[in-house]
Amino acid sequence: MQRKLYTARLERKECISESAQCYHFDFAIDELDSFPFSPGQFVSTVAPDSNGKQQTRAYSIASAPRANHFDLCVNRVEGGFFSNHLADLSDLPPGGAVSLHGPHGHFVLKEPLTDSIFIATGTGIAPMRGFTQFLFPEDGPDRSGGKEIWLVYGTRHETELYYHDEFEALAARKPNFHYLATLSRATDKWTGLRGYVQEHVARIVEKRAARLGQKLPLEPVPAGTPATELNFDIYAYICGLNNMVSGVREKLAGYGWHRKQIIFERYD
């Protein structure tokens, strides 16, 4: 079945990290009054390359639904057709357009919402920004239901913490949202957390278990339990490169977490 293609017009483009060559894009689909999607889903952009070959690239949506708009967060990749096509003003100036289809994907929040740990590196922050905008909208009712929400975001350098000020402001505004930014190659000037995301996720899990009187590792879920009866009190949502995703999954499995508590999306 042929997928419906939309034309997305670029309203705004901003380089949010010179060192990482990361760009934020705000698109509008003029043919639609609204572009509904679930936070965490992705769109697939489509364009012909210089040889006339059709290229497709999937990008997580970096925002919650808002009318007919959506945001993307894209790193320029050396030799990468689509990232350069989007980033270069000569190819895509404000007012320019790209073709896309979607939304797609199952990297979405579980219902009913529980305490949740969002874990990201690099542009894996894109769907997490969608989650947080949906749960804590600035111009609408809080959808978090008072659940504890942690965002653990790891990069190498401070200049690669995309949307850092936005998440810090949200943490200051919402007491049940906890933002943990950690750097693996921090300079002496960095006063925040250091190390890899796995270490900080482990501390969250251990402190929460102690507070709730839970013993780790957790008791295993009996084999054969129907999926409809798997009701957990916390989930982890992980997005980034394979090594990080695998490391966090292994760490959580060591605490006795069930595999269905761990929702993930890999970029490689």
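the 2nd protein, sequnce then structure:
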Amino acid sequence: MSNSLDAAPSGEASIPQHGLGARPPDPSAGADTPARGRGSSVRGLVRAARPRQWTKNVLVLAAPGAAGVLTEPEAALAVALAFVAFCLVASGTYLLNDARDIDADRRHPTKRHRPIAAGVISTRAAVLVGVALLVGGLVVAAAVRLELLAVVAGYLVLTTAYTLRLRHVAVLDIVTVASFFIVRAVAGGLAVDVPLSRWFLIVASFGSLFMVAGKRAGEHAELGPERTATRTTLGIYSLTYLREIRVIAAAVTLLAYCLWAFEQAPSKAALPFFELSILPFVLFILRWALLLEAEREQAPEDLVLSDRGLQAAAVAWAAIFGLGVYVGA
């Protein structure tokens, strides 16, 4: 099981750092061996759960935020629980996926430093904790609404299908990873029972495709001739093809957002907040495209957390759009 846009966590001091030409760890080492100590094991489990990846789950706030219901305590609680449910399920799938792909990860230049591949935690511990997190996420989703439970369960099925088959099918692997983002956005709307605009869904869909294509291009460039050893579809894609996907996806995203912003705008608003939000949104996409061309083709969450320009555009957009939702209307 995998969400696939995984940014490999940086290695800690206690984990051996092997050079690209060094001999990788013995595949049998750490597969079922105990971790080096309770503290090391706990830290390893936390790293393997990838809490940094939880930033993707803020997408559950998108639809409720656009609908202006986040100030309602009941809706805010439902969205918070939806966020927790996705964090638990996502971390569970990361642990199970790493346990399953331990041999492939040990051949990867960066993934071999992940706690399971490096032998910091055993595969048995990873599987037990992963299953517990999955069950916990489904229970939390069920406590909100059955519709949210259905979406979270569907997300789990999709990640499983991706791990077992879809990640090896060209084009479908990119589309499936993009759908992981879309599911989160849809789940936020279902958690508080708000309707989802067609333009909202288009923006979410093609914006996700834009980010995933950038990530794949980064993997293509980073791994070079060895790329097919860890991801077979990278042997089919060319960098030109992946960049063409980025251009198309960015164009559709920008057009759909403009149409959505004008659709959201009330006819007698004092200030055109929704229309003004187009500017930081466009700047965000253009800045992202610039960073990708500069070969900073990182995982989306890493790129946003490391670039001040993207952060400034995101904050400006959230402020302006929020004023449109909660003040301008």
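Residues 73-100 form the longest helix (28 residues). Residues 1-35 have pLDDT under 50 and may be disordered.
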